[in-house]
Structure formats: structure tokens, C-alpha cells
Design brief:
This protein has helices spanning 3-38, 47-67, 75-103. The protein is mainly α.
């Protein structure tokens, strides 16, 4: 296999991964549309996040091809690359979201804490979450 063949296969794998991520994105947009139809205030679509998400799908598909020696075996292999784009993008986004949330910069639009709880509107200082993200025990002294 020549270098040109490897590059072509990696690019094809990336495009198939992008297709898998596109399927995942379509499902997510349908879910968002359904949720927005039940709400008074609609949640906007973040176009930059969609483009980044497609790129991550491309990377996931390309990495899958590289890990599997860079050549296409059969039709099942093609579906596996699409699945790698679908699931791989979810995995990669999850890792980056967790990393960014730990640093305190939330650019992926997920919850503001790594464990998904925001504790919004809580003015009682003895309630909330500890460093592990688990709720603190209530104050047993009777002071609330």
C-alpha cells in the first residue's frame, strides 16, 4: 500500500466519520426541535458547535481507519467507520467538555459543573456540593 492509498483511505474514513456525526447531529437537532416546541422560550442552535462537532466526527473516523491499518476490508467495515464517527465524536466531546468544565471555561454549552448540577438559586451556604460533586450533608445542629 502506497502513501497515497493510506492518505485516500484516511480521508475516506474521515468523511465516513463525518457522516456518522452528521447522523448524530440530526438526531440531536430533532430532539432540540421537539423540546423547543414544548417551551415558551426556544433554545438557539449554536452553529459553531455544530461545525466543531462535525470536525470531531471526521477525526474519529480518520483515527479509526489509522488504528485498523488504513485499508477497507468489506461493507461491514464501512458501517463500523460511520459508527466510530457517531460514537467516537460523543466520546471525544465528553472528554473535552469534562476537561473544560474542570478548568472553569464552558465553551461546549454543557452544564456549568462537571457533574451536571448547577445549584442555581441556592442561598443556603450549608447546602450545595462538595469537591467530589456529591451533595453535602445537611447541618445537624438545627441551624438552617
Amino acid at each position: 500500500m502506497t502513501a497515497t492509498d493510506v492518505i485516500n483511505n484516511v480521508l475516506a474514513g474521515g468523511l465516513l466519520g463525518l457522516l456518522g456525526q452528521g447522523i448524530r447531529m440530526a438526531v440531536g437537532l430533532k430532539k432540540l426541535s421537539d423540546e423547543n416546541s414544548r417551551r415558551e422560550e426556544n433554545e438557539p442552535v449554536n452553529a459553531s458547535r455544530l461545525i466543531i462537532s462535525l470536525f470531531i466526527g471526521f477525526v474519529a473516523g480518520a483515527l479509526y481507519v489509522l488504528v485498523n491499518k488504513g485499508f477497507f476490508k468489506d461493507d461491514e467495515y464501512l458501517f463500523a467507520i460511520v459508527a466510530a464517527g457517531y460514537a467516537g465524536a460523543d466520546f471525544i466531546e465528553g472528554i473535552f467538555t469534562t476537561f473544560i468544565n474542570k478548568r472553569g471555561n464552558n465553551t461546549f454549552g454543557g452544564p456549568s459543573s462537571a457533574n451536571g448540577s448547577t445549584n442555581a438559586g441556592n442561598t443556603n451556604s450549608n447546602q450545595g456540593s462538595n469537591q467530589a460533586g456529591k451533595p453535602d450533608k445537611p447541618d445537624d445542629s438545627g441551624n438552617s
